[in-house]
Every structure is written in structure tokens, then in C-alpha cells.
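Reminder to self: C-alpha cells first, then the designed residues, so the page reads top to bottom the way the pipeline ran.
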């Protein structure tokens, strides 16, 4: 009797990886039947978990207008009697955003953190008698309105993302999003670019599982997909993404970066650094290793 992974060899689109014993086997790429006494070894990957910003979406094009608007609004809430000197550009710089050039550092708080992390960072820079950014209802409401106004229908994908995502989905991979953005915002972004239907799970920092690099959001994606963490891969661009993958015992991590030098940690495999996700289907295809 063959194992579950052996049986998957003959099952349509679910044939992503397998282990075949000595005898006849079928190439997944050519359907050619071969006689061999070799063993075909591959890694089983069933779930691909994506970060959102900087991976699926163009971070600067999508979020820079939002960052600037929220920073200017926050400065406007500083009490008039404070004699300090903090401007919107200072708040942005603390998050890794250069207001002059529009560059967003992938290692900074804005790219890798949550809205809660942003509020905590800014609160330390503002006068002690200012409102609590975390608890003031009016501030929370107004910021949400700004995000909707400047971000809604302004979502910019990072190149052609729909083609590779639909290709991976058609091949039988379960797809999920794990973001330090809010869940509702993430779903709106995916709806804007027409790919929301491809994801079995969208988990945000406000979904009840914490934020990256904690592993619980990743584990929730695995739970929803019915996949064990070692059979999953994280695709991300920040240390928070890499940390979540490590903490959750993910099967692998694929880094999105302009170059291998830009990867967030030196231990990330250089061979698993790609600039955009249109390179992902070829990279994630089962690597067949024949051994005696």
C-alpha cells in the first residue's frame, strides 16, 4: 500500500510533491513514465502565507499618502501650550519613512510593525499631557477615516501579482495573508486588486492572534488551511516576517527584496531571495532529487 504522499502523484492539481519508491514513476512535469530504482525526494509544501505590504502591494505607492496624512493629523492634535518642536517629518522619520524622498525602510516600524507599534513610537515623542493615541476615541476614528480616504481604491500591486497568485491557487496550494495591518484593511486591499477570492485566510494584527514576529497569526493561517506549519512557507520582506516563520516552525521562508544584500537577516538563504512574486511559482516548484 502506498503512502498518502505517494497517492498524491496521481491526483490532478494536488500533485505538488511526493515520495516515490523504486519502480515506475511519473514525472510531474512531463507525465512520462520511467523505470528507475531511484527514490524521488521532495519537500511537501501545501500552504503559502504571504505578507501583504512590500510583497503583494507596492509599499510606497500604496501607503506613503496614508503615512503622511496620519502624521500631519497627529501633529495637529498636539496641545497649543507645548513648547516642543515636532513636525510630521519627524514622526515619519521615527518609523523609517523619509518624507523628502518618499522612501520607506523595510526594516522600519512603518513597514514591519502594526498600527499599535506606530502609536507607541509616536506617543513617546509627544508631550506627556497629550491625548493617548491608543485610547482616544476621536483620534482612532479620525485616523481610520484618513486611512479609508487616502488608501481606499489607491491600492497599487507590486507588479503583476494576480497571474502568479492564480497560478499557485490553480496548482492546489492554499494561500493566506498574514499582515501587521488591520484585517479589514487587508481584505479591502486584496479586493481592490481582484485577488481576495484566492485566500483561505486573511489574518491581521487586530484579528486576535497578535502581530508578527509572534507566531500565533501564522499558526492560525495553518489551522484554517488544515496544514501543519512544516508544510507551509512564509513569503515576506521584513524581519518580522522572518521571525514569525521561525517562531511558528514554518517549512521555509522566501524573501522579497531588491537584492540579496537587502534581505533582513543574513541567515536567509540567498537562493530564496526574489524581487517580486511573479518569480515565486518557478522557485516553489518541487525540486526532484533522485538518489540511489
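Designed residues (292 positions):
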Amino acid at each position: 500500500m502506498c503512502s498518502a504522499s505517494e497517492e498524491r502523484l496521481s491526483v490532478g492539481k494536488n500533485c505538488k510533491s511526493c515520495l516515490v519508491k523504486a519502480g515506475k514513476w511519473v514525472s510531474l512535469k512531463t507525465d512520462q513514465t520511467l523505470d528507475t530504482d531511484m527514490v524521488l525526494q521532495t519537500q511537501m509544501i501545501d500552504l503559502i502565507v504571504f505578507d501583504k505590504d512590500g510583497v503583494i502591494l507596492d509599499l510606497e505607492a500604496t501607503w506613503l499618502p496614508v503615512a503622511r496624512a496620519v502624521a500631519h493629523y497627529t501633529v495637529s492634535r498636539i496641545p497649543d501650550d507645548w513648547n516642543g518642536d515636532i513636525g510630521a517629518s519627524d514622526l515619519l522619520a521615527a518609523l523609517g519613512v523619509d518624507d523628502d524622498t518618499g522612501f520607506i525602510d523595510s526594516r522600519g516600524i512603518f513597514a514591519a510593525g502594526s498600527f499599535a507599534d506606530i502609536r507607541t513610537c509616536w506617543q513617546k515623542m509627544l508631550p506627556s499631557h497629550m491625548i493617548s493615541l491608543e485610547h482616544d476615541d476621536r483620534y482612532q476614528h479620525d485616523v481610520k477615516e484618513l486611512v479609508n480616504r487616502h488608501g481606499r481604491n489607491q491600492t497599487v500591486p507590486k507588479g503583476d501579482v494576480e497571474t502568479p497568485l492564480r497560478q499557485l491557487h490553480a496548482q492546489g496550494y492554499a494561500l493566506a495573508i498574514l499582515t501587521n495591518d488591520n484585517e479589514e484593511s487587508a481584505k479591502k486591499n486584496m479586493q481592490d486588486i481582484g485577488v481576495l477570492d484566492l485566500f483561505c485566510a486573511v489574518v491581521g494584527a487586530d484579528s486576535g492572534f497578535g502581530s508578527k514576529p509572534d507566531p500565533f497569526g501564522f499558526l492560525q493561517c495553518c489551522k484554517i488551511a488544515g496544514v501543519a506549519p512544516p508544510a507551509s512557507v512564509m513569503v515576506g520582506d521584513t524581519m518580522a516576517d522572518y521571525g514569525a516563520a521561525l517562531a511558528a516552525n514554518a517549512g521555509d521562508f522566501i524573501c522579497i527584496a531588491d537584492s540579496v544584500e537587502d534581505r533582513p537577516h543574513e541567515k536567509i538563504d540567498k537562493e530564496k531571495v526574489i524581487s517580486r512574486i511573479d518569480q515565486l511559482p518557478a522557485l516553489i516548484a518541487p525540486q526532484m532529487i533522485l538518489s540511489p
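The two ends are 21 Å apart (CA to CA).
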